[in-house]
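Long-time lurker. I teach an intro course on protein structure, and each term I like to show students one example going from raw sequence to a predicted 3D structure in token notation. This year I'd like something fresh instead of my usual example. Would anyone be willing to generate the tokens for the chain below so I can use it in lecture? Attribution to the forum is fine with me.
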Amino acid sequence: MTIDTSLLPIFINAITDVIKCHEDEVTALDQAIGDGDHVANLQRGLSQLQAHSQELASLDWQQAFQKIGMLIMSSVGGASGSLLGTLFVSISKSLKQQNQDNVSFADALIAGVESVKQRGKSDLGEKTMLDVLIPVSQLLQQSHVNKTNPADVLEQISNTAIEAMESTRDMIATKGRASYLGERSKGHIDAGAKTSQLMICTIADVLSRHSTPPS
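-- Reply from a regular --
Happy to contribute to a lecture. Here you go:
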């Protein structure tokens, strides 16, 4: 099944609300092993997306992802801006290159996550947002190949995102400021993994309520 970009304002507002709701929790996580500014940076980007939400809703998906990526890169500070911006721009490029008779968001997400891995010189198990993005993208791609029931896919995506976020608690950070703590970074959930999980679960919830998940 497919969706159109008219849902983008709903996605953006829902994500903005969930990040606000968990603002104190995520800030505490970030202050424990990071710079403490992850939420503030993310909220600047979300504010820009809200300001441009109607424009985004008028674009096709390839154009919308490109615009989202550029807005994030220009407004979100720190590594998150670069990495999240790269994710969306790369998704856009993948969609543009695909055979338009068989467009797969799952394949585009895989391409986007690979670009984030390259940009951040990071991979699974290093206590970053990739510890959520990688398993979720792999699940989505496998579900696409298997033609899994969309409602089941959305539930699996949410469960996978939560489990993956929780798994970062026992990891030793090897990237960013947290890497300086070494073993002391264990016992803390990564803030980027947490916000990635919150955003993914929120998107899955919106899609489940509209019953039109992407192919």
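Some talking points for your students: The CA atoms of residues 38 and 80 lie 8 Å apart. The mean pLDDT is 91.
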